[in-house]
Structure formats: structure tokens, C-alpha cells
Design brief:
- This protein has a domain of 77 residues.
- Helices cover 59% and strands 24% of the residues.
- It has four helices and four strands.
- It has a four-stranded antiparallel sheet with strand order 1-2-4-3.
- The longest helix has 50 residues.
């Protein structure tokens, strides 16, 4: 009299299987989304790693800047160079455009973290310069 009807057990099993299939399909979609997020994160990590290799070597950056600033075309430019612990500030109130072009050619073709760059044309042959390079 108090026996469980086998149809109720069958219906419960069918409902349980349907619920598990629904949960499984939602887990599959979540897994695919996570896979795409992982791939984008991996690509970003590789890019950041390569950028770190280029920009993180402080000694190399300091030597390269010193090499650029010691060029003979820049010695007559009257550059005001202020070296700080984590950066170098280069400024000039009046720099010849040829010297400015030589400096910018070396700086912009190198891999430096330029945080500030202001160039103002004073005349056809003179300009003012303010630049900060961090490492």
C-alpha cells in the first residue's frame, strides 16, 4: 500500500537526466568561452613578455642613451641633461634643427619609454626641446 509507483521513479529519472543534460550543455558553452579567454590571455602574456625583454633592461637603456647623447653632432647642441634614479630629462631652449633631427632619429628608432616629448619651433633653424625617458 505504501509502495512507490515505478512510473514515479521513471519520471524522476527522466527529469534528473534532462536536468543533467541541460547542465552539461551549459558547462560546455562556459568551457568554450573560458578557452577563448585563455587563448587571448596567452597571446597578451606573450606580447607583454616580449615587451619586457625590450624595455626592462635598465643598464642597457642607460648605456644606449649615453651613447646617443655622446655623439659629436649633439655635443654642440647645448643640451641640458638631468639624470634621475628612474629617468633622464633632456631639454634645450634653443637647439639646431640638424642636431634635433639627429637626436630624434636615434631616440625614436630605439626602444625607449618616452613619457614626455615637447618640441616647439622657434625659427627655421632653431627649436626648443623637452623630453623625458623612463626605465
Amino acid at each position: 500500500m505504501n509502495q512507490i509507483n515505478p512510473l514515479h521513479i521513471g519520471a524522476l529519472l527522466v527529469a534528473l537526466i534532462a536536468f543533467l543534460l541541460f547542465t552539461l550543455s551549459s558547462m560546455k558553452t562556459e568551457m568554450l568561452e573560458e578557452k577563448t579567454l585563455y587563448e587571448t590571455s596567452e597571446k597578451l602574456a606573450l606580447k607583454l613578455s616580449s615587451l619586457k625583454d625590450v624595455y626592462a633592461d635598465k643598464k642597457k637603456t642607460k648605456r644606449a642613451i649615453e651613447r646617443v647623447l655622446s655623439q659629436s653632432s649633439l655635443k654642440t647642441a647645448a643640451l641640458d641633461v638631468k639624470r634621475e634614479k628612474s629617468s633622464v630629462r633632456i631639454s634645450s631652449k634653443s637647439i639646431d634643427t640638424k642636431a634635433l633631427n639627429a637626436l630624434m632619429g636615434k631616440i625614436l628608432n630605439g626602444s625607449y619609454n618616452i613619457t614626455e616629448l615637447k618640441i616647439k619651433k622657434l625659427s627655421e633653424t632653431k627649436a626648443s626641446l623637452k623630453m623625458e625617458i623612463k626605465w
